[in-house]
């Protein structure tokens, strides 16, 4: 994971309150931009695609 190239959304407010994602080849890595050395969530490619589809559909609307 140390060699992963991390990305932040262009919609990020710059205050460091966002997540970063990286391509893991067969999946996606996700971490808190405020705690970079902290835990990393590892998702399969299929799991990540399902998560993004849920966001687009609004399945997570209202959760904060």
TrEMBL record:
Record-linked Pfam families: DUF397
Domain of life: Bacteria
InterPro entries (alphabetical): DUF397 (IPR007278)
Domain DUF397: 4-55
Protein name (record): DUF397 domain-containing protein
């Amino acid at each position: 994971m140390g060699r992963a190239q991390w990305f932040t959304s262009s919609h990020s407010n710059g205050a460091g309150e966002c997540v970063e994602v990286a391509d893991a080849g067969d999946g996606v890595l996700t971490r808190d931009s405020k705690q970079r050395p902290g835990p990393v969530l590892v998702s399969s490619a299929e799991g990540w695609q399902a998560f993004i589809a849920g966001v687009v559909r609004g399945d997570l609307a209202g959760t904060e």
